[in-house]
Amino acid sequence: MLQLRIAQGSRSRRTFGRTLLAAAALTVVAAVPAVAAAPQAQQAQQQTQQTQQARPAQQAPAAGPAARGSLGAPAYQQVAHFYGAYIDAVSGKGGGELASALRKFYLTPQLRSRLDAWERRNHADGVLRAQNVPLALRVTPGDSAAGHTWSTVRLTWSRGEHPTYSYLTVRSDLATGRISDIGD
């Protein structure tokens, strides 16, 4: 479970740091496509096949680790990274471009179009399902099946003895690591 709290005094410093981190991550991921690893994997597979043909009596080598999604981290961590950076982007001045870039990077095109329609109908942010920005968030991993995994995002809207929360169910594609659905 990942948890993020936003303190009032250091909010601008954290916002700047997360925004900078998100921008750097987007730059690095855009510069190093996952496709670059494919020729090396093919070459290794061809060498293994040639070795097996040359020495048929030997046992085949053990298989290497399974390939992960292109984002490289568990899906619920990607959800936490997205929501943390997104909240910082929408709460900061002039963060609209960064928020759009984060949506483009982390969300599938189909989800982005559904969110646009939802936002026109509800006059609110479709990612947060609200007109305001939450004070904190927590992401909890859920079940996985049929190439997808679900995470629960708890958004904290107030402080005090009885804080107010809202919960979102976020579905991610295991193959790509991208968020493919956000529901209440």
Q: How is the secondary structure organized here?
A:
Blueprint: E1 2-5, H1 11-31, H2 37-54, H3 75-91, H4 96-106, H5 109-122, E2 136-145, E3 148-156, E4 165-173, E5 179-183
Antiparallel strand pairs: 1-2, 2-3, 3-4, 4-5
Helix pairs in contact: 1-3, 1-4, 3-4
Note down, in words, how this protein is organized:
The structure is a single chain. It is built from five helices and five strands, in the order E-H-H-H-H-H-E-E-E-E. The chain is of the alpha+beta class and 184 residues long. A five-stranded antiparallel beta sheet has the order 1-2-3-4-5. A hairpin with a 5-residue loop joins strand 4 and strand 5 (179-183). The longest helix is centred in the N-terminal third of the chain and has 21 residues, at 11-31.
* Uncertain stretches of 5 or more adjacent residues: 27-41, 44-71
Number of strands: 5
| Sheet with the most strands: spatial strand order | 1-2-3-4-5
| Secondary-structure class | alpha+beta
- The percentage helix is 40-55%
Largest β-sheet summary = 5 strands, antiparallel
Order of helices and strands: EHHHHHEEEE
Assembly classification: single chain
Percent of sequence in beta strands: 15-25%
Radius of gyration: 20 Å
- Provide the residue-averaged pLDDT: 75
Number of helices: 5
Shape: globular
